[in-house]
Amino acid sequence: MARTYKIQVLPGDGIGPEVIQEAVKVLEIVSGAIQRLDLAFHEFPCGGKYYLETGVEWPGEAEVFAQQEADAILLGAVGWEIAPGQPVRRKDGQLAGAEVVLGQRRDLELYANVRPVKLYPGVPTPLADKQPADIDFVIIRENTEGLYSGIGKRYGENEPGELAIDVRPISRMGAERVIRYAGRLAQKRGKGAPKDGKQRLTCVDKSNVLLGDQLFRQVFEESMHDFPEIEPDFAYVDAWVMWCVRQPEYYNVVVAPNLYGDIISDLGAAIQGGMGVAAGGNIGDNHAMFEPIHGSAPRHAGKRRANPTAAILAGKMLLEWLGERHNDHQAMNAATIIEEAVTTVLKEGKVRTYDLCKGSYSSQKPSTTKQMGTAIRKIIQKTLKERS
Ligand code: NAI
Ligand code: MG
User: Fold this and answer.
1) What residues flank ligand 1, with Cβ below 6 Å?
2) Does 138 map to a domain?
3) 165 CA to centre of ligand 1 in angstroms
4) How many angstroms is it from 96 CA to the middle of ligand 2?
5) Are residues 289 and 347 in the same domain?
6) Closest ligand to 115 CA?
7) pTM for the whole thing?
8) Hey, what's the torsion of the CAs at 213, 214, 215, 218, to 10 degrees?
9) What is the mean pLDDT of each run of 10 residues along the chain (388 residues)?
10) Looking at the DSSP assignment, which residues form a beta bridge with residue 72?
11) What is the residue range of 236's domain?
12) Residue where one domain finishes, among candidates 271, 299, 322
């Protein structure tokens, strides 16, 4: 008997619901067509708009469901604004909705933020002379500690001597679990770095200056003894961004503390073609949440033009994670079919949302969110039919 996976769906704000709808439709198709793969979707409201209406960021039962019921979570984006440039804030000044993302990362211990940086054929990259064959690596960002620990204080507000301090805890345990996650991923990625096929794992830090990074690097070096087939590699974060632009093909898996990981993964998104195609996973030992890495893009909300590719690829990562966790070949198989369909649609290039109409595609008429989702689903259906 196939087991039913409970998928918690959190569309959120702005373009979140628009792109998540397309992703869920894709997942419904593979779930319906592949025998022994059964996904059940449980949708809950959340975000800044919901906060405006209710005074809470998400219903209490959604939080309980995430902790106790969900096999995996698919999130759109959170963050709404009352007027352009005026975000909805909680009483404590924090962005309303942010707790859904940050709280889950913390409470479910989703310590590895996994960010594949892959340039698909047909997607324009701002890097001159780089091809899809050159850009294919994964950034692993530590997701629970570091500068985003939330520990800090402002002293003497609005006084001339005002001072703000953010505390940056980096623990041996926190560093070790994410570094080992990156090590296991490097082991699994048989093809290695595009440049030379090496199973390279790069530790990105600032250990020439900061104590937390010295600990991070030390734990990296110690952990690598258990991964003899992996080539350990080191870069200071400032140098890494330069090398990433010059020769992204050198990288295979990259691991970094929280803040650096946040910054370098946006560079990654840019070189892989932008927010419309960049997906990520927040992964722990017992829970995982997948999302397009973009936000709610209020400017584009309701205009039916957001690119659903990132959300669809987030769904693909969700299936991959379920597949590995439960040794479920059907889930893995479905993930492959989805990625192949995305690749085909992007490569053919006839259907492309506005964000991909750049460079040599700038004269093309942009497709809608729905058209893009439909094109991807059509290829999936064709593949499923051929294989049945
Ligand atoms: P954003 O990612 O929402 O949008 C920035 C720009 O990227 C957009 O103006 C658009 O040009 C492009 N873009 C984003 N997604 C796209 C898509 N699917 N297709 C085509 N183009 C796309 O970032 P922004 O404007 O800084 O933040 C807007 C709101 O989202 C804020 O409230 C912010 O706090 C929130 N946010 C939420 C995140 C989350 O839920 N994980 C992550 C980042 C921001
Ligand atoms: Mg970011």
Assistant:
1) 15, 19, 77-79, 87, 95, 101, 275-276, 291, 294-300, 306-307, 310, 353, 355
2) no
3) 27
4) 17
5) yes
6) 2
7) 0.96
8) 120
9) 89 98 98 94 98 96 97 97 94 92 92 98 95 98 92 93 96 98 96 97 97 98 98 98 98 98 97 98 98 96 97 98 97 98 97 94 96 98 92
10) 7
11) 152-271
12) 271
